[in-house]
Amino acid sequence: MTYKCGIIGVSGGRANGHADAYAHIHRGALACIATRNRANLDAFGERWNVDARYTDYREMFEREKPDLVHVNTPPDVRLEVMQAADAAGIGALIIEKPLAIQAEDYLAIRDFASRAKVKVAINHQLQFHPRRQQLQNLVADGAIGAVRLIDASARMNMAYQGTHALQSIAGFYPQGRPASIFAQVSGASGLIQGRKQHFAPDATMAAIRCSDGASAFLRCGLNAPYVLAGDERTNVHKRIAVYGTDGYVHWTMWGWETSIRGRREHGSHNYPDEDILGQAAMTEAAFDWLEDDGKCHPLNLDAALLDFHILLKVYMSGLHRRAETLTSELQPGLIGALRQELEDE
Ligand SMILES: NC(=O)c1ccc[n+]([C@@H]2O[C@H](COP(=O)([O-])OP(=O)(O)OC[C@H]3O[C@@H](n4cnc5c(N)ncnc54)[C@H](OP(=O)(O)O)[C@@H]3O)[C@@H](O)[C@H]2O)c1
């Protein structure tokens, strides 16, 4: 079966990555696109050879009835797309990160998730990079023993690449249950109104202690370490290291390293090559889920909501300089409160 796939929001750069991955996707074809800007719609349609073009995504849902749709809109235009897709009977959505921005939209999406029929996954495709899969499997198979410490980072803020770093913690250690979250935040330039609506402090550092004694350390933004020494681009420094009782695994955008019971191995890879394969495998996993309710996508909406809840508690901990748990009340107006606090620094 060939699944009929669509993209919403093709005026920005990201949609090209989604379209490109279809060269590696075997069970689906890019059949329809929607974006409000007519000139951008036609330019994208010409480039990727897609004839079914719409300036209104609701009309695309109605007329094309796609099986799976990639949603590339800004974070404040995600819930309305999910609701419209659910009402139109669309099978699955893959929504770009970040899922949400603060408590109000988190609670609204959580409420939607409790009732929705549409299957939703979040586009954290790194989970499906071939190298990440190899390393994740090593950890899952117990090769490094019991997980004790996870160290994840990205030099872009939490709303940009930070969500990839946060998701990677659960990607390597899905059984971790946060018992305490203690964080520091600084810098307000990423909290100022912008076209992309990607609000986050410029630097975030969090220590997340799990109930089984393992811990995760998260650094996102300009406080994070460099992966490529001397490379000042902010977007090339995502990494994660997972330490266990018998060794560790370390992944960066450009290489990998394992040390297991005294035996060290390492190598390199090219992030764009890994990324397109990850994007394709993530999409194929959504087809698996469409075919079988039992094959729930690992990047499903409930998992993303848990990560987003952790992030909101990270922000609250940084703001109030106290440890938080997942049981405390969520603070409304968090981005405004952070902006006010951090602008005065
Ligand atoms: N997973 C990854 O590795 C990765 C990499 C890069 C980016 N991203 C994420 O991908 C997303 C898109 O990135 P981008 O750079 O392409 O962003 P962008 O340039 O801001 O594009 C946003 C898109 O949304 C559409 N849009 C905006 N408002 C809308 C509305 N009210 N209704 C319908 N459509 C609307 C815009 O097209 P029109 O104005 O034509 O409607 C545009 O195509 C972001 O969330 C970004 O964080 C993810």
Give the H and E element order. Answer: EHEHEHEHEHEHEHEEEEEEEHHH
Biggest sheet record: 8 strands, mixed
Indicate the low-confidence ranges by residue numbers: none
Spatial strand arrangement across the major sheet: 8-9-10-7-11-12-13-14
CATH class category name of the largest domain: Alpha Beta
Can you count the helices? 10
Fourth-tier CATH superfamily name of the largest domain: Dihydrodipicolinate Reductase, domain 2
Measured as a percent range, the helix fraction is 25-40%
Give the name of the CATH architecture of the largest domain: 2-Layer Sandwich
Account of the protein in words:
The chain contains 10 helices and 14 strands. The protein has 345 residues and is an alpha/beta fold. The protein has 2 domains: 3-126 and 276-299, NAD(P)-binding Rossmann-like Domain (Rossmann fold, 3-Layer(aba) Sandwich); 127-269 and 306-320, Dihydrodipicolinate Reductase, domain 2. The strands form 2 sheets. An 8-stranded mixed β-sheet has the order 8-9-10-7-11-12-13-14. A hairpin with a 2-residue loop joins strand 13 and strand 14. The protein starts with a strand and ends with a helix. The model has no long low-confidence stretch (mean pLDDT 97). The chain binds NADP nicotinamide-adenine-dinucleotide phosphate (NAP). NADP nicotinamide-adenine-dinucleotide phosphate binds at residues 9-15, 35-37, 40, 72-74, 77, 96-97, 123, 125, 196.
Features:
345 residues, alpha/beta, Dihydrodipicolinate Reductase, domain 2, 6-stranded parallel sheet, 24% strand, globular, binds NADP nicotinamide-adenine-dinucleotide phosphate
